[in-house]
Amino acid sequence: MGRIAATLAVIALLFSVGSAWADDNSEANELFVGAVKLVKSADEIEDDPIEKAAVLEEALGKLNEIIDNYPSSDLAVKLISGQSVGNITFEGIRDAAIRVRRKADARPIFEMTLKLAEQGLAGAQFNVGEIYYKGYDVPRSYTEAVKWWRKAAEQGHAGGKTSLGLMYWKGLGVPQDIAETLKLYREAAEQGHAGAKTGLGEIYFFGFHGVPEDIAEGLKLWREAAEQGHVDAQLWLGTIYQVGTKVPKNKAEAIRWYRKAAEQGHYYAKERLKKLEAK
Predict the structure, then answer these.
(1) Tell me: the pLDDT tens digits for 92-145?
(2) Domain boundaries, the chain
(3) Which stretches are transmembrane (predicted)?
(4) I need a labelling partner for 23 at 20 to 30 A (CA). Which of 57, 135, 181, 228 fits?
């Protein structure tokens, strides 16, 4: 808000003193003042991405009009060259308009998913939980994420059970409860969920939160998940065999699992694989 007010003040001053810049470029200046006011208006819109996108696009339209219709004006030159005019740049407004438009376009998808979730579709309930957990196009809310993942879990959705188990593990949106995490992870793992197997494998392998250590069970779960393509399980196996954590060092096994994770695009797996193969 401060930068917008400062920009308006600069423009007002230019008009009030009758500067040559203002006189010689009056049409462009008026368009720019209009764009700045629209940006200020957009800054005040918080809960309606569709309206905000429309206002920013209108502001961008005015900047484009300056460039297209008054290319020799001082403002057009500054906008084209990427210079800041009272802390406003063409690229900044353009990028903001694109970002908010993407958010606005995603809104109907969320509303449709939410409607399906409210109708009881477990997959949609899981997706709504994911949206709230990550804050995609809605304010992040762990409480809402837990609510929707619980609904999905109660219908037997393995992903819902796994995600809800993670929330109990971390104490996000619910009080921490490791026993509940174990229960949910075990149920989802029995359904074949690779993420649940990976999480359960961590608990058993390291003996987290007082759970008795069971290296063999942890390895078994990680291997199952890794064979299913779960990149975190692949990374865990690569790491413990590289470092020799509770298992003998095994360069070949480390390379094998790092390569599988790297093939899925995992950055750290790629870096570790490169270093191991160079030795």
Answers:
(1) 988 988 888 888 887 888 899 999 999 999 999 999 999 999 988 788 999 999
(2) 2-102
(3) none
(4) 57
Q: 259, 271 in Cβ contact below 8 A? A: no
Cβ 266 vs Cβ 244: under 8 Å: no
DSSP code of 88? B
Distance between CA atoms of residues 271 and 194, nearest Å: 24
Nearest to 243 by CA among 254, 235, 252: 254
CA–CA separation, 265 vs 271, rounded Å? Answer: 11
Q: How far apart are CA 189 and CA 148, in angstroms?
A: 20
**Residue pLDDT, tens place only, 148-169:** 999 999 999 999 999 999 999 9
**174 SS3 class:** coil
First to last CA, the chain: 55
Give phi and psi for 85, each to the nearest 5: -115, 100
In this structure, are residues 249 and 242 in contact, taking their beta carbons and an 8 Å threshold? yes
- Return the residue matching tokens 């406003």: 88
Helices (H), 139-250: 142-154, 158-170, 178-190, 194-206, 215-227, 231-243
Q: What pTM was computed for the model?
A: 0.70
Instruction: Answer yes or no: are the C-beta atoms of 54 and 96 closer than 8 Å.
Output: no
- The stretch 227-243 carries a mean pLDDT of 96
CB neighbourhood size of 198 (10 A): 25
Tokens standing for 113? 């998913």
